[in-house]
Design brief:
Helix content of chain A: 25-40%
Distance between the termini of chain A: 40 Å
Radius of gyration of chain A: 20 Å
Structural class of chain A: alpha+beta
Strand content of chain A: 25-35%
Number of domains of chain A: 2
Number of helices of chain A: 8
Largest interface: A-B, 89 and 89 residues
CATH architecture of the largest domain in chain A: Alpha-Beta Complex
Number of strands of chain A: 16
CATH class of the largest domain in chain A: Alpha Beta
Low-confidence stretches of chain A: 2-15
Shape of chain A: globular
Oligomer: homodimer
Order of helices and strands of chain A: HEEEHEHEEEHHHEHEEEHEEEEE
C-alpha cells in the first residue's frame, strides 16, 4: 500500500491526496477488520473454522465503463459489485474490499467524490469495510482494481467443479438486461440509469449464495459475469460434464420505462448480469424464491460434454460459449 | 475474477487468453492455498490463531516502470516485491498473490512471458502462490495491480503506531540505491540491470520482519517505499511522536560496477528501497545482522513531533518528508 512513482518532480494531484483521508474517514470499521487504512497492510479477523476467499476485478475506463455513459456513482457501485458477486458465487460472506485507484491529472474532484460515494453505499449495504488499497496518477483514464476478501465455513465453499449428471440447473433473477442496456448505449441512446438498474446498479446475490451454502443445496455455482453461455461452460468444463438448457425457461430481463423484455440472445450471451448460475442434485428442494430473488430451473446436467439448447418445440442445437469476445 | 468488457465484437488478445492457462499451469500450489485459479474466488487456509494481512499495489507503465528502461522480468519482480515488502513490514508471512494484469493489444508475447517469469521466480523464492487475479485489454500501456495476502499470529502484527519516546530507530540494508539508479535512467544512461539490483530486483525483507515479530523486538515498523523521510514521518504521525536522526549513521547504498556510494539525499528521500524502518525499546538487543541483512541504528524517537536530522558536527535541521512528490 505505497504509492511511489517514476514522476520525479511531479505533483500528486489533489484528488488523489484527499482521497485516502476521505476514504479513511468514511469507511466504517467492521468487526472483521482489526486494522484498515493507515498501515502497510490491513489486518483482518477470520472466524474460527473458516477459510478465506479472495477475488480481484478490474474496472478500466474505456474497457468496463465510459465516463460519458456511466455516472461516477454507478462506476463505483459496479466496481465493487463485480467483486462481491464473486464472493456470492462461492457462498461466502464478504469482509473487506481493497481499492486500487489511478486517476488522470485533470479528473474533477466531484467525479472522485461520486465514485467513492457509490462504492461505499454498496459496501455499507453488505457490511463490507473499505480497508485499504493504493492510489496512483494514471497516464490515461480512470483505472480501478478491486480486491474483495471474504470467508466461508471450512470445506463449504461452492465450487464450479461439483456438477454431476442429472443435477438440475438454476439461475437467479433475470438475464440479458445489462447487455441489452449496453447495446442501447452503443447506439447512442441517452438512458436514465435508475430505469436500467440491472446495468448501472447490479445487485450481487450475497444472500442467495449464503442460503445455498448454509442449506448445502448447490453442487456447483458460478456468477454470470462473462455471459450465461460462457459461465455455464465454465461449470461444465470444471465438472467434466455437459448440459441441456430449456430455452423457454430462461428468464429474460425487462428493462427501461415502460419495461420491455430483452431478446433471448442477450440473456444467453450478454455479460455483467451478476446473477448466480448453480446446480443441485435432483432430490434437493430448491425454493422458487431465495432472499427475495426469483430462482428459475432452466435445464439439467448431462454426461456428454456439450451444451445443448432445446427450443419450445423440443429441437436441440449446440449452445456455444459466446461471452463478450464474440458478442455482436 | 471475471473479465467481461465493453468492447462488443472485440477479440481478446492471444496474450491474455493464454496468460491465464499458463499461470495456472506454472503457479505452484502451496499448503495455504486450498483452491487457486479456476473458480470465482481463491480459497485460502489461515493457520489457527492467525490474522489475515492484505495489501494491494499498482505497477503502471509510465508511472512505476518504463518498458524501455525495465526488462519485463524486472517489472514482474518489482510488481510482486512491492506487495511482499508490505507483508514484511507487518512481520507477516505471505501466502498468496493475486495479479490483475491489463495488456495493450500489441504487446509481444515474449514480454508477457518474461513478466510472468520474473514474478513467479520471486513468488517461488518466498513460497508464495499466484492464486488468482484478473485480465483485461488495456486501452493504454501495461497495467498491473498486485494483491498479496499473508498471515500473522493474532495481535503480533507490527504496526506503525507503536513507537514511543526513547525508542531506537533502525533501518535494514542500505538506502537510496533505487532512486539514484532511477536518476541515471532519467539522464539517459544505459544500465545493466544486474549491476543495479536494488532498483531492478529489490529483495523484500520477509525474513527480517518475521524475526522481529517472533522475538517481539520492534515497537513500530514500516517499509521504505515512499522514501525514508516520508516513511519515517508515517511512523511519527501514527505514533504521535518525533524523531532525531544521526545523518552519518544512515547507510547509503553503493550501486553500479565498480560500485559507488550514492549521495545522502537519495538515501533520505528516494523511494522504492523496500528496506524496513523500525523502532525498538531502548532495552532490546537488536542484532547488527538479521536473516543475512545488515541492520543499522540511526537515531531515536523523541517526544516533540518534528523530525530532526543531526549532522556529524552535532548541528540539527528539520528533516521534512520529501518522498516522490517533491523529489528532484
Amino acid at each position: 500500500m505505497g504509492h511511489s512513482c517514476l514522476y520525479i518532480g511531479s505533483i500528486v494531484p489533489l484528488a488523489e491526496k484527499s482521497l485516502i483521508s476521505r476514504i479513511r474517514g468514511r469507511a466504517a470499521r467492521r468487526p472483521g477488520v482489526a486494522a484498515g487504512i493507515g498501515d502497510d497492510c490491513a489486518i483482518l479477523n477470520i472466524p474460527d473454522g473458516h477459510q478465506v476467499l479472495v477475488t480481484t476485478d478490474f474496472s478500466l475506463e474505456g474497457v468496463h465503463f465510459r465516463r460519458e455513459w456511466h455516472p461516477a456513482d454507478a462506476v463505483g457501485h459496479r466496481c465493487l459489485a463485480r467483486g462481491l458477486s464473486d464472493i456470492a458465487a462461492m457462498g461466502g460472506d464478504p469482509i473487506a474490499a481493497f481499492l486500487s485507484l489511478a486517476l488522470p491529472p485533470k479528473i474533477p474532484q466531484s467525479w472522485v467524490n461520486q465514485f467513492v460515494k457509490g462504492l461505499l453505499k454498496l459496501a455499507d449495504a453488505f457490511h463490507v469495510s473499505l480497508a485499504g488499497g493504493d492510489t496512483a496518477q494514471s497516464p490515461n483514464g480512470v483505472l480501478a482494481d478491486i480486491a474483495v476478501v471474504g470467508s466461508v465455513s471450512k470445506g463449504k465453499a461452492i465450487r464450479r467443479s461439483g456438477a454431476r449428471r442429472g443435477d438440475r440447473i438454476y439461475v437467479t433473477g433475470t438475464l440479458g438486461g445489462a447487455a441489452a442496456t449496453l447495446k442501447m448505449l452503443f447506439s447512442g441512446r441517452k438512458l436514465r440509469p435508475t430505469d436500467f438498474a440491472t446495468h448501472f446498479y447490479p445487485s450481487p446475490r450475497i444472500g442467495v449464495g449464503r442460503f445455498l451454502m448454509e442449506k448445502a443445496l448447490a453442487s456447483a455455482m458460478v456468477d454470470i459475469s462473462d455471459g450465461f453461455s460462457t459461465d455455464l461452460a465454465h461449470i461444465c468444463q470444471e465438472s467434466g460434464v455437459g448440459a441441456e438448457i430449456h430455452a423457454p425457461a430462461i428468464p429474460c430481463a425487462s428493462i427501461g420505462k415502460p419495461a420491455r423484455e430483452v431478446e433471448l440472445q442477450f440473456a444467453l450471451h450478454g455479460g455483467d448480469d451478476y446473477e448466480l448460475l448453480f446446480t443441485a442434485r435432483p432430490g434437493k428442494r430448491v425454493p422458487s424464491r431465495i432472499a427475495g430473488v426469483v430462482v428459475s430451473q432452466i435445464g439439467h446436467i448431462t454426461r456428454h460434454k456439450d451444451i445443448v439448447l432445446m427450443n419450445d418445440e423440443g429441437a436441440g442445437s449446440e449452445l456455444r460459449p459466446q461471452g463478450w469476445e464474440h458478442f455482436k
